[in-house]
Write a structure and sequence with these properties.
Chain lengths: 93, 156
């Protein structure tokens, strides 16, 4: 598991009061962990602060609504962690 | 303040978009039906309405940041504190600032003071969305001008 995933899982556990051991790389934030949109904004706030990035939630939502992406691409935690790594890399580029 | 219209801010006295700070002034009304219930024989400004003052103060800053193209809707409050009783006739100052500008949401802070002394504070989260209608936006712009926001300086 990546260091990014570990930090994301810690954030989710703390923000949503979900046992840390239930949060796995293949967990879907919405479908498996039942995180609602309001709690996900708290998670996004914590992720943004922790990694010094801005998760493009509006863009992702638009892509999903337009059928150009699936929720799995952004809300399965290993994929979310990969997206965070890409944003961190883009920030440093 | 006009409780019955939920217009909690009398005047925006400073709005610094670059510095991410807004300062507002507002006077608690001497008379209101709110005080008949809160509380009989002991009128006291409700903490819930102080919270609304803070939400509106920082909300004006959030709107100015987008050039009044988006509307902030209150979705979360943390660490709200009401440090002292506020009475009819009190003159309050509020200072709001931005903690984080996320994608589709903004987290702000606000502090209320009376004669320089802390009265209340809170961290406030807004969902930031397009105005539901052009008419809604127009009404907000009109309201902003009425309380001293130099709308034309910010509008996009």
């Amino acid at each position: 598991m990546s260091a990014t995933f570990d930090k994301v899982a810690d954030i989710i556990a703390e923000t949503c009061d979900i046992p840390r051991e239930n949060i796995k790389p293949e967990s879907h934030a919405i479908n498996d962990l039942e995180i609602d949109s309001l709690d996900f904004l708290d998670i996004a706030f914590a992720i943004d602060k922790t990694f010094g990035i801005k998760l493009p939630l509006e863009q992702w939502t638009q892509e999903v609504n337009d059928g150009k992406a699936t929720t799995d691409q952004y809300f399965v935690l290993k994929n979310l962690s990969d997206e965070i790594d890409k944003l961190i890399a883009a920030k440093g580029a | 303040m006009r409780f019955e219209y939920f217009q909690m801010i009398d005047r925006v006295v400073a709005l610094d978009v670059a510095g991410r700070v807004v300062r507002c002034r507002s006077g608690v009304p001497q008379q209101s039906t709110v005080f008949e219930g809160h509380f009989p024989t002991y009128p006291l400004m409700p903490g819930a309405l102080l919270l609304e003052c803070m939400a509106q103060t920082t909300g004006w800053l959030v709107m100015a940041l987008s050039g009044f193209t988006t509307m902030p809707f209150l979705i979360g409050v943390r660490d709200a504190k009401f440090r002292t009783a506020v009475f009819p006739g009190d003159e309050l100052e509020f200072e709001g600032s931005i903690v984080h500008e996320g994608s589709g949401f903004t987290v702000g802070e606000c502090k209320g003071r009376r004669q320089g002394k802390a009265v209340c504070e809170a961290q406030i989260t807004y969902r930031v969305m397009a105005f539901p209608s052009p008419e809604f936006r127009q009404a907000i712009l009109q309201w902003a001008e009425q309380i001293g926001v130099p709308v034309k300086e910010f509008i996009k």
